[in-house]
Amino acid sequence: xxxxxxxxxxxxxxxxxxxxxxxxxxxxxxxxxxxxxxxxxxxxxxxxxxxxxxxxxxxxxxxxxxxxxxxxxxxxxxxxxxxxxxxxxxxxxxxxxxxxxxxxxxxxxxxxxxxxxxxxxxxxxxxxxxxxxxxxxxxxxxxxxxxxxxxxxxxxxxxxxxxxxxxxxxxxxxxxxxxxxxxxxxxxxxxxxxxxxxxxxxxxxxxxxxxxxxxxxxxxxxxxxx
Length: 226
What we know:
This is NAD(P)-binding protein. By secondary structure, the chain is of the alpha/beta class. It has a single domain, classed as Rossmann fold (3-Layer(aba) Sandwich). The chain contains six helices and seven strands, in the order βαβαβαβαβαβαβ. It has a seven-stranded parallel beta sheet with strand order 3-2-1-4-5-6-7, with helices on both faces. The two termini are 22 Å apart. 43% of the residues are buried.
């Protein structure tokens, strides 16, 4: 297996894009990465714009650069535009973390539209973020970190798709690692629960995690083990 290194000079600012960052786990990840010294671009859909601006203000109080990018990650054009905006304003992309939508319904009660929306956001959206973030990281020539969210019928199907994407090693020659976290039911109203996820993402983003790739790490209190 090829060994990964982090060739980024320490003086180059590291920039993270966190999708689905308006609330919950995504919000906590964005704050943790800012605490770790990364500049952060936070993304969500247009209806979450006010929440994103509040998050941007909070991150800036930590003396980190921050910006909000409204985009639907299931749209290729919007993902391309999102990456381009972040590069233009923050100077690059060194890490991307993806968050998906949760559909908790029995299969018999799930409509085709609900199924398609879940697959579209969680699988296609993750693929697009992986693809265009990796293209930018390769262009920059200093590697990077890609970290997705992988974990009820449509939801489980979509998340197994993300696990498959994560296990690809095609970015290895460019010093880009790809990993995923698989959370159980996380009570985001309780301070310590999303912190478990954000601390894992924080570690996977660090230079010393360069030899961890292609992994889906379960974070569920032992509810399910592999």
